Amino acid sequence: MAIASLDNGNAGGHFAAMRRKIIIDTDPGQDDAVAILLALASPENIEVLGITAVAGNVPLPLTQRNARIVCELAGHTSIPVFAGCEAPLSRKLVTAEHVHGKTGLDGPQLPDPTMALQDAHGVDFIIETLRREAAGSVTLCPIGPLTNIATAFQRAPDIIGRVQEIVLMGGAYFEVGNITPAAEFNIYVDPEAADIVFKSGVTTTVMPLDVTHKALTTASHVQGFRSMGTHVGRMVAEWTDFFERYDKEKYASEGAPLHDPCVIAYLIEPEMFQGRHVNVEVETGSDLTLGMTVADWWGVTDRPKNAQFMGSVDADAYFSLLTSRIARL
Fold first, then answer.
1. Bond from prior residue into 29 cis (ω within 30 degrees of 0)
2. Cβ(64)–Cβ(102) below 8 Å
3. What number of other Cβ atoms are within 10 A of residue 5's Cβ?
4. Which of 76, 213, 221, 259 is flagged as catalytic?
5. Is 221 a residue of the active site?
6. Edge-to-edge strand order for the sheet containing 138-142?
7. What are phi and psi for residue 158, nearest 5 degrees?
8. What does pTM read for this prediction?
9. pLDDT, tens digit, for every residue of 156-165?
């Protein structure tokens, strides 16, 4: 189904002129890794306060390891990395080794990280950071299941009103599901957590499959990474070579969706995205549609609007930003 009449405005665009302080909440994943690289390569736009790992694409011992590997690859070993929740709020963990490989970062061989994992729990870091920093100055960037964010909101409701914005990768509407017929992976893994986040009242911008499936790693885009002639560029190209095999076969497409960097790209150049401010509800009860993000795209209910739900991206501008910034590393 085609998406029509996209609004040019966006709920978070008025933040774009300032340098954003962010926490990246992640389950790396090759596309998570590229998102982290883009953030670390963009200090004029983004200050990464820390990275919190969550179980998702692979279990927590691997996601926290992978986050540190990526920081070291970028040469940013001072970024604090924390291990967060090892399982969804109330469900058994579902993982995605069939896409990302047994390590989550399969493809090129990278050494084990030497930078330390922080002793504190990732949820405690989120809570303490939001209490320490000025209210309305920290953006949360979840690019995996929403377990850490929901747990922080449950444990410390006082922080909810202090969040500047949540910009997340997750969900789908017109593109339906990629892990079930109805659900996108990040939301499906912990739908109860997603429900808490969407009902929190925090200004929320969503990068669903509707956007990410328009940001495909075509041969020319991957060559852009490879042509950098840098170690980081080669790693990104090799990661892409690995994970796109699954999606290209699944969707019969010329490339794979590069999902998670959309979150960081939005913070830097929000004008490349278009979407609508709509109501989004998360299905938590139905076996058939568990984890579905039901977006009231056409405004047919009176449910309150709670999310800027993106529907399209300028793919050429997106990959131009990725290559120009990651070439710095």
1. yes
2. no
3. 9
4. 259
5. no
6. 81-83, 46-53, 20-26, 138-142, 163-169, 204-207, 307-313, 273-278
7. -65, -20
8. 0.95
9. 999 999 999 9
